[in-house]
Amino acid sequence: MITLIIPAYNENLIIEYTVKKADEFLSKTFKSYEIIVVDDGSTDDMKNTVSNMDIDNLKIVSYNPNMGKGYAVRQGIFASQGDYIFFTDADLAYGIDVIKKGYRKMKRENSDVVIGSRKLSKEGYKNYPFIRLVASKIFSFITGTISGLSYDTQCGFKGFRREAAFSIFENCVIDRFAFDFEAMLVAKRMGFKISEIGVSVINHRDSKVNILKDSIKMFRDIIKVRIVTESRIKGHL
User: Fold this and answer.
1) By C-alpha distance, which of 155, 164, 233 is closest to 200?
2) Residue 63 in 3-state DSSP?
3) Single pTM value for the model
4) What pLDDT does residue 207 have?
5) Contact 213, 135 (CB under 8 A)
6) Which structural domains are found in the chain, ordered by start?
7) Are the C-beta atoms of residues 92 and 99 closer than 8 Å to each other?
8) What span, in angstroms and rounded, lies between the C-alpha atoms of 109 and 195?
């Protein structure tokens, strides 16, 4: 069974289209699947929109207040039933076909984790806003320097075998901006095999991220990962 998790906050304008597109693709590609929309404390009408959709394989996980994407992804994983669990952004920034590509990559290489990488695609950063591109490169350099990870950790598409997903996210504590970095660091430290697929951002829209304000929070989270998460991992190895 395949699980697709869509963490979302105030995405009422696009969520119905996203879920329908995902359902159409998954129904043609996999024999068994589920879609989990995680309503991360939205203040718009997104919860009602999703709840009223007539799709058998659709679940919604909802809570208040807003806790952050990392928290939302964890709740989706803990509510999932799939043998392979994927998550992607609510605007399908990397398209929907990445799920099939990621699944095939994991099966072919017998990997535990698959992550999208804009670094591996010639058009990975095509039409990317300059400020966001610079911020992404700086963040990647810093996280790579302190952790030794060379992955595009901030890419919004990732997939996991069920056992790996639970083992990894049970040891994660970051709720917001650096949760991807934390998850990949935990995966690497725990010895899980990680594969990468090249992705491109095909759906551009205005970011909800405040570059200056949120960059400070990201670096704070990185420090927390190095201190708190690393000690948690050592205690479980």
Assistant:
1) 155
2) strand
3) 0.88
4) 55
5) no
6) 2-235 (3.90.550.10)
7) no
8) 8
